[in-house]
């Protein structure tokens, strides 16, 4: 009983407590999947107690500890709360000065906020008497836990660092090394890169094992096109790097929980048709048999919106497709989609929201899901779309490449449509190939089934993480 392997997962966000993107999905579902897969592990997750964490969860929390954390010349209050969910203990670090704010990140003092968070994690380990066998940190906000352990704490644990997106590195001016990160100057070379402090680089150097969220992305980040300047560091540390593709939460994203339920073994086609009609009714789009193409995404150019901007109008003018967008982000793209919806009232709807419940209706109601990312470490939406039997059309990069294989009408294998070059007309060609298939009922049914039946649950990936932890 007592000999359970102890895993402490550290990160800046986790669903359902607080999230801004895919990292939140992963830290909200991987830990429970690990606990399900193995009865001999004790998985705990630690994150900040943001203002955003809802009252319903706060009421369930118990206070575990209260300590004072020192960060260079600062002494800061640190409360620790916890609650249990799906076999996992979640810890929340409380400090209102740092975390009682409107939003999760994007503040001028994020470096200090997450340095405090990481110091608190390290100082709390003896307080809660939970000495992990493995500390698993995720993205730059938790990178300092790995660095601190190597430089100062020396707890006898292995450290894993996972890159969810190498674009966000945690870069700061060298002069705050001692003052904010409380790291002595003699260690500058560990965290310094390209003339500034780079927390991701420091964690890559200090960790025992480096992972990212698909094997294709693990290869890609050895290359300057994808690595945002870190390609050399990745190459030097390549022997400790591997890729483990994410899964999605099959309970949270469950087409059998919709009002018009369906799934691979229950009303796959008729249930899908009902959801499509409901979506068209809700959005006031004509129910005329036309295929619905949807996008649900942050409106950022690396998600492929440059391509969409280039050729979507051509697609609307030359085919009968309808188009639905859900997402928020860069103004340039919001303006584009707003204008398009105005000019194509019978074909286009643009919804500028981050809304999970609405997203499920769109996944379930659309025929085709477009995800033409320029780079995509893993990507979850293509998997969620598949679960709701919406056929993904993706660019062959990162996790999109690993999860979506092109449909071959001869062998009838493949679970989506893909294109290779980051080029607008290649994407348009992929959309047109998809629409051609859509008009061939037999082939389309097969493709929809392949998409819906593909297993994107956490089971296999949780196993892969457990094997990786065990091999440390
Ligand atoms: C980041 C990546 C995304 C990935 C997610 C979870 O948001 O951009 O591709 O799916 O992290 O790992």
Task: Please give the structural blueprint.
Elements lengths: L4 E6 L11 H16 L3 E8 L6 H4 L3 E10 L2 E12 L2 E7 L1 H4 L10 H18 L6 E5 L4 H11 L4 E6 L7 E2 L15 H4 E2 L2 E3 H8 L2 E4 L2 H6 L3 H4 L3 H6 L4 E3 L24 H16 L8 E5 L8 H14 L3 E5 L4 H13 L4 E4 L4 H10 L2 E4 L9 H7 L3 E5 L2 H6 L13 E3 L4 H15 L2 H13 L5 H12 L2
Parallel strand pairs: 1-2, 1-6, 2-5, 6-7, 7-11, 11-12, 13-14, 13-16, 14-15, 16-17, 17-18
Antiparallel strand pairs: 3-4, 4-5, 8-10, 9-10
This protein binds alpha-D-glucopyranose (GLC).
Short note summarizing the structure:
The chain is of the alpha/beta class and 472 residues long. It is 40% helix and 20% strand. The strands form three sheets. A nine-stranded mixed beta sheet has the order 3-4-5-2-1-6-7-11-12. Strands 15-14-13-16-17-18 form a six-stranded parallel beta sheet, with helices on both faces. The chain has a three-stranded antiparallel beta sheet with strand order 8-10-9.
Key structural traits:
six-stranded parallel β-sheet, 19 helices, alpha/beta, nine-stranded mixed β-sheet, 472 residues, 20% strand, binds alpha-D-glucopyranose
Low-confidence stretches: none
Class inferred from helices and paired strands: alpha/beta
Mean pLDDT: 97
How far apart, in Å, are the first and last alpha carbons? 21 Å
Q: C-alpha Rg, in Å?
A: 23 Å
Proportion of beta-strand residues: 15-25%
Report the strand count.
18
Percent in helix: 25-40%
Hetero groups in this structure are:
alpha-D-glucopyranose
């Amino acid at each position: 009983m007592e000999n359970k392997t102890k895993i402490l997962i550290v990160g800046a966000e986790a669903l359902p407590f607080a999230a801004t993107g895919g990292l939140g999905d992963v830290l909200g579902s991987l830990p429970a999947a690990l606990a399900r897969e193995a009865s001999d592990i004790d998985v705990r997750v630690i994150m900040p107690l943001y203002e955003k964490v809802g009252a319903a969860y706060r009421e369930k929390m118990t206070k575990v500890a209260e300590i004072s954390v020192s960060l260079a010349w600062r002494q800061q209050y640190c409360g620790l709360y916890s609650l249990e969910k799906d076999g996992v203990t979640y810890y929340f670090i409380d400090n209102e000065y740092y975390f009682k704010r409107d939003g999760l990140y994007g503040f001028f003092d994020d470096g200090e906020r997450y340095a405090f968070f990481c110091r608190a994690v390290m100082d709390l380990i003896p307080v809660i008497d939970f000495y992990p066998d493995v500390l698993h940190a995720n993205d730059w906000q938790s990178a300092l836990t790995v660095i601190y352990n190597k430089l100062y704490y020396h707890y006898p644990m292995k450290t894993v660092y996972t890159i969810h997106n190498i674009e966000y590195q945690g870069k700061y001016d060298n002069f705050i090394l001692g003052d904010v990160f409380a790291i002595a100057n003699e260690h500058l070379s560990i965290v310094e890169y390209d003339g500034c402090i780079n927390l991701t680089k420091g964690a890559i150097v200090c960790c025992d094992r480096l992972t990212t969220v698909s094997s294709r992305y693990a290869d890609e980040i050895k290359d300057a096109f994808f690595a945002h300047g870190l390609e050399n560091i990745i190459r030097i540390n390549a022997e400790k790097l591997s890729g483990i593709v994410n899964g999605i939460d099959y309970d949270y994203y469950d087409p059998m929980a919709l009002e018009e339920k369906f799934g691979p073994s229950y009303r796959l086609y008729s249930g899908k048709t009902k959801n499509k009609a409901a979506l068209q009714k809700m959005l006031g789009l004509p129910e005329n048999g036309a295929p619905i193409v949807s996008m649900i995404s942050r409106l950022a150019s690396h998600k492929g919106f440059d391509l969409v901007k280039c050729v979507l109008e051509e697609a609307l003018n030359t085919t009968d497709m309808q188009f639905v967008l859900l997402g928020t982000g860069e103004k340039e793209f919001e303006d584009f989609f707003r204008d398009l919806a105005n000019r194509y009232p019978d074909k286009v709807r643009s919804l500028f929201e981050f809304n999970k419940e609405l997203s499920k209706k769109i996944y379930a109601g659309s025929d085709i899901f477009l995800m033409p990312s320029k780079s995509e470490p893993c990507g979850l939406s293509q998997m969620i779309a598949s679960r709701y039997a919406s056929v993904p059309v993706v660019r062959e990069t990162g996790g999109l490449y690993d999860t979506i294989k092109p449909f071959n009408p001869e062998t009838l294998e493949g679970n989506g449509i893909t294109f290779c070059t980051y080029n607008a007309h290649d994407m348009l060609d992929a959309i047109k190939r998809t629409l051609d298939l859509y008009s061939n009922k037999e082939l389309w049914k097969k493709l929809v089934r392949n998409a819906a039946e593909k297993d994107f649950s956490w089971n296999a990936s949780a196993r892969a993480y457990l094997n990786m932890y065990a091999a440390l």
